[in-house]
Amino acid sequence: MPAPQEPLDDLDEAAPEDEATSVDIIAAREDEGLRLDRVLARHLPELSRTRLQALIGSGNLTREGRLVSSGSVKVAPGDRFVLRVPPPEPAAPVAQDIPLDIVHEDDDLIVIDKPAGLVVHPAPGNPDGTLVNALLFHCGASLSGVGGVRRPGVVHRLDKETSGLLVVAKNDRAHRALAAQFADHGRSGPLERAYLAFVWGVPDLPSGTVDAPLGRHPVSRERMTVRSDGRAAITHWQRLETFADAAGRPVASLMECQLETGRTHQIRVHMAHIGHPLLGDTVYGVGQRTKANRLGEKARGALDALGRQALHAARLGFEHPASGDFLLFESPLPAELARLHRALEEAG
Prior knowledge:
Blueprint: E1 21-26, H1 36-43, H2 49-57, E2 61-63, E3 66-67, E4 80-85, E5 102-105, E6 109-114, H3 131-139, E7 163-169, H4 172-184, E8 192-200, E9 207-211, E10 214-216, E11 224-226, E12 234-244, E13 250-259, H5 266-273, H6 288-292, H7 297-306, E14 311-319, E15 326-330, H8 335-347
Parallel strand pairs: 7-14
Antiparallel strand pairs: 1-4, 2-3, 2-4, 5-6, 6-7, 8-13, 8-14, 9-12, 10-11, 12-13, 14-15
């Protein structure tokens, strides 16, 4: 039985995968009486006969809205067919010798402190050089297969440019147990995840909750947005520090964010939604350059050098799938975020 898929939505670093395309074919007069597979091959020369037969056999072809299950049926002029063509299956990832910062490893799982810039698994635009490629080299064939060919062992994800902790399963039993914990999001179980986020502005309250459903942006498909028909998304936040500009006016804050759900780009969208976008987030943070002009020279330089959203997965706790022990891991701010932190503290 497959593991729950909800955890895999967590802070997905990739743009939406290529979607299936639909092709309309209207039979011409010269197609009359011919076999359907021959007609399709003539109209769609870019697809092989074998590929067309496989698409028909897997339920991807309709005629006048009704499913067609065989390529041997005869065609009449004016018949309208719609062929759904899924994107091609990606090649299986290969092992690559990429250094890993391993925080913990045993027979069931491995905890990684992921650097910014490392994609978790192969996706369009990132076919290799990912965490999965590195894990295949390090772990060999021991990773769980529950996540599929492209995502062996992957229980949850982080954005490409988000640093910090994530756990990977090394066998199917561990994968299912961990996935169940992530699907529960700590509501009734031991899962604990905390992210450090540097945001623009200072919230009026010391803590709060953002409860706003998220879905794909209707125009920019690589973005998420708050929308009434989206999936439930809840972020709890706490203000840890505030930072002032050279004139002593509040300019930014350090927040701890804990997820009750794990939607794509959730923290980034939710913080922007309440008027406090992440420093360095050029996708969801409007007016980054104008805001940065209020920083002192050192802080502005540290932000420019960061080149990404200022978000770090700092704490991860879960129940070990075999022993039942609670494991808690913490990751300090990476060097580039630590520099930004010091510069913001000194600016005030």
